[in-house]
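We were asked to recover a plausible sequence for a given structure. The inputs and outputs are reproduced exactly as logged, with field labels preserved.

PROBLEM: sequence recovery
POSITIONS: 301
GIVEN STRUCTURE:
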């Protein structure tokens, strides 16, 4: 492992979310000399630390060894990236700009129903605050932004990584504001070592089945299983691109540590050969819950 990796100080957002906690686990597992600085919404550092620790400990893969590494190498910061100076005191902000070598910005609102202005505050303005922080970091090697494949909005067909547009329209405020944040990031590409990673729908850990945070996909399955929604509208031959948490975590880590190319945008997805059609997904889901309810009825008095 190179000395630059051993001397890394990584600021990470979104640590209590669907993806950020898995990234923290990955860096704690793979690297022994890296210090992590998760930015967590809270009133005090201790409250922020407890909030993150509760989230991390809920994962079956967060072992006692990782817990020890957490105590040794994770420096949780109470703050909020939608606020000026990340919501932290000026002296601490200045100290971090002289220390941080890498930024993993995975924090975002993934609420599809959020009003557009509220979504912009988090996903666009928040990203702008992170970029301003990055501009002041004298030792910065990498700014990694976690985005979504849904920035395509209402476009269809083949869309290349560098084809950015917000004119095609979007299905919800999440898609639109993530696309707008990418346009903002591209304005900083020549100034900062930025890479963008577009994930499709992350559903949970393949090995354990653990879901770190429930989103639109999980809630849809729950409502479907309970018979609250009797169907899902769509083309039965259309593909649902679903990925387990481990895959994008490994991809982001590899691209950061083994193949970092500033100015690049990546699509991290399953692809049509490894994804469900809507019809197949519905059949699998219905059969799965049918078996559960049937088996339960056999053992329930």
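RECOVERED SEQUENCE:
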């Amino acid at each position: 492992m190179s000395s630059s990796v051993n001397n890394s100080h990584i600021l990470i957002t979104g640590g209590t979310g669907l993806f950020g906690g898995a990234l923290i686990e990955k860096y704690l597992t793979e690297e022994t000399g890296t210090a992590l600085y998760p930015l967590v919404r809270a009133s005090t550092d201790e409250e922020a630390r407890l909030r993150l620790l509760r989230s991390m400990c809920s994962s079956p893969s967060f072992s006692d060894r990782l817990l020890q590494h957490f105590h040794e190498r994770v420096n949780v910061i109470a703050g909020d990236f939608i606020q000026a100076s990340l919501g932290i005191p000026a002296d601490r902000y200045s100290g971090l700009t002289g220390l941080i070598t890498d930024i993993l910005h995975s924090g975002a609102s993934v609420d599809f129903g959020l009003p557009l202005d509220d979504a912009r505050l988090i996903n666009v303005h928040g990203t702008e605050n992170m970029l301003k922080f990055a501009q002041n970091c004298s030792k910065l090697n990498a700014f990694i932004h976690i985005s979504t494949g849904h920035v395509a909005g209402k476009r269809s067909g083949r869309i290349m990584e560098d084809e950015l547009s917000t004119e095609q329209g979007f299905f919800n405020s999440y898609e639109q504001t993530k696309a707008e944040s990418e346009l903002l990031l591209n304005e900083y590409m020549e100034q900062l070592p930025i890479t963008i990673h577009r994930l499709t729908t992350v559903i949970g850990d393949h090995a354990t089945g653990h879901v770190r945070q429930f989103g639109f996909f999980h809630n849809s399955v729950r409502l479907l299983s309970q018979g609250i929604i009797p169907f899902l509208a769509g083309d039965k031959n259309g593909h649902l691109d679903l990925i387990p948490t481990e895959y994008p975590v490994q991809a982001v880590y590899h691209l950061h540590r083994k193949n970092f190319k500033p100015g690049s945008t990546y699509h991290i997805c399953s692809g049509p050969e490894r994804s469900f059609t809507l019809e197949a997904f519905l059949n699998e889901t219905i059969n799965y819950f049918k078996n559960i309810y049937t088996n339960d009825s056999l053992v329930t008095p």
